[in-house]
Amino acid sequence: MNEKKKGKISIVKILIYAFFVIMSVIYLAPLLWVFSVSFKTNGEIFTDPFALPESLFIDNYVFSWTAGKLGIAMMNSFFVCVITLLLSMFLGSTVSFAIGRMKWKLSGFVMVYFMMGMMIPVHCVLIPLFTRFAKVGLSNNLWGLILPYLTFSLPTTIFIMTGFFKSLPNELVESACIDGCSIYQIFAQICLPLSKTGLFVTGLMTFVANWNELLLAMVFISDDTKKTLPVSLSKFVGPYNTNYSQMFAAIVIAIVPTIIVYCAFSNQIVEGLTAGAVKG
Amino acid sequence: MEKLLRDKKAIAVFVLPAFILFTLILFVPICQSVYYSFCDYDALTSPKFVGLKNYQNLIVDDTMKIAVKNSLFFLIYSCVTQLVMGLILAGLLTNIEKGRNVFKNIIYLPCVLSSAALGLLWMFIFSPKLGINQILAKFGMQGPLWLMDIKGYITLPMWVIAFVALWQYVGQSMMLYMAQISGISKSLYEASYIDGCNKVKSFWHITLPLIKPMVGTAMSLNAIGSLKFFDLIFNMTEGGPNHKTEVLATHLYQQGFKYFKYGYASAIGTVLLILCLIMTFVINKLFQSENYEM
What are the residue boundaries of the structural domains of chain A, listed by start? Predict the structure, then answer.
């Protein structure tokens, strides 16, 4: 009886594993395909799209990096994302500290005000921002991207960081108080270092989200030398391009940085995602 | 200590920069956008109040009808499929030990990749000359025109895009459910096995009720995400063929930044905003539940 049950369970287990192997194929095959095609010559693609490339044809990458302007775009994306990341960490953690640790009447209201940003799609502010930025010289300017990116990154950052600050033990703050720390010192030298994990996690989420953002970047930037990666990619891979292998190389260039970041920090990214949802 | 934590000046220093930024970049523009939606406003003129004219035009706009239909289809499809698939994946994954992390990370991977790039990739997969149709041709079958078919109430390209969206984002729902499931105490399951439950039954009677709040969270994330869906559609079909795959976001983009009808586009934006608020409200009401001790 016992043995029979064991046998039954292992069949179920095998089925589960088979299911996940199939799922993995569905998830990885498209990515592997794009890698393989990106190394082919344009002629090779149409003879058999699924064969492995005969030799590694690097020219595709060189062309899309330089002539396709993906190199410049990558620098722009990097600039925008890093600045946004630093600013949102700083502004987000100060607000979270005030909400999570300090005592004031309006803290609940301010929290709700910031959380509103999570429900509002960026499309709704597109037109007013576009016309306003054109007047103050922020359109076609990378800072014109940084400001809205920062604004839309703040809600998640504040949400997660407030949770972290609230979970810090009270005694720490108390003893720092007795030692004569000012409130700024308590924030910068005690609470912030203790919430490093939270900062790192929110930073990663901010970075990934802004790295992939397409709509705002497409609307606000028209100058080719200032475009970010998703925009340049969408422009390079379009109905007017007929060189397929170069387009595939461009797609690879666009997704490889996030794949690397993901492989290095997948656990932290997952933690950030769940921290953002569970703590609420 | 108390005095230190009630320091008004410090609170202002901490909160005001972000608060001002948030007000200027988010709150004021939203009010402006709602105001513009009642205005005749394009790239050359300044806003002029015309009342409900933009909304009246919206009602008779055929593309808007398609966009609303597609957006609602998308909303329902992604809420249902993400819930079902997410729960299945999470339920199965928590039952295996070896390889759990590997499978989890593989399925979550597309969530962090650029949907612009993935949209282009899937466009190639579904294009007639490359990809799936070539595989079908090897078996002597002729595949449909995946992204160009215009028959049916919900056209084939919409189903294709919805599938790709499920492929890309189901990892997120799965991850959220898994996090919640792993927080459930083992003793609850042990008790249920003693009472004669099998795994399926205990999933139904213990796991599901306990992760109900998370279902609400994941679903509202899905709902808002699917309403503001833009990148994949823009890069797979650009709303075509013949506007059949237009959704609210792409329609807004076309009207606002191709034809520069700012007032009209703002009206679409307002519809989108109201839909988002309604969905958040409805889902919160539906999944409001008492918190169980876990």
Answer: 2-38, 71-244+258-278
Model pLDDT, residue A277: 61
CA distance B235 to A232: 12
| CA atoms of A151 and A136, how far apart (whole Å) | 18
Report residue B99 as tokens. 């390889």
Q: Is A14 in the B-facing interface, judged by CB distances under 8 Å?
A: no
* Rounded Cα gap, residues A216 and A210, in angstroms: 10
Q: What distances in angstroms separate CA B234 from CA B58, B150, B246, B253, B261, one per listed residue?
A: 21, 17, 9, 10, 19
How far apart CA B113 and CA A256 sit, in angstroms, is 9
**Mean pLDDT along residues A212-219:** 91
Q: Does B221 touch chain A (CB under 8 A)?
A: yes
Q: What is the pLDDT of residues A132-165, one digit of tens each?
A: 998 898 888 899 999 999 999 999 899 889 888 8
Query: What is the residue type of B21?
Result: L
B274–A contact, CB cutoff 8 A: no
Contacts of B96 in chain A (CB under 8 A): 13, 16-17, 20
How many structural domains does chain B have? 1
* Strand-pair partners of B39: B49
C-alpha B240/C-alpha B255 separation (Å) is 15
Distance from CA of A178 to the nearest CA of B (A): 8
Q: Helix A70-101 to helix A107-119 angle, to the nearest 10 degrees?
A: 150
pLDDT of residue A280: 41
Domain A71-244+258-278 has CATH 2.40.280.10: no
We report the CATH number of the domain holding residue B144 as 1.10.3720.10
- Assess if residue B292 is contained within a domain: no
| Listed ranges A49-53, A90-94, B93-97; the one with the highest mean pLDDT | A90-94
Instruction: Tell me the pLDDT tens digit for each residue of B268-287.
Output: 999 999 999 999 889 888 88
Q: Is residue A8's pLDDT more than 70? A: no
> In a 3-state reduction of DSSP, which class is residue A6?
helix
Nearest chain A residue (CA) to B96: A13
Q: What CA dihedral angle connects A94, A271, A213 and B223, to 10 degrees? A: -100
Q: Is residue B46 part of a domain?
A: no
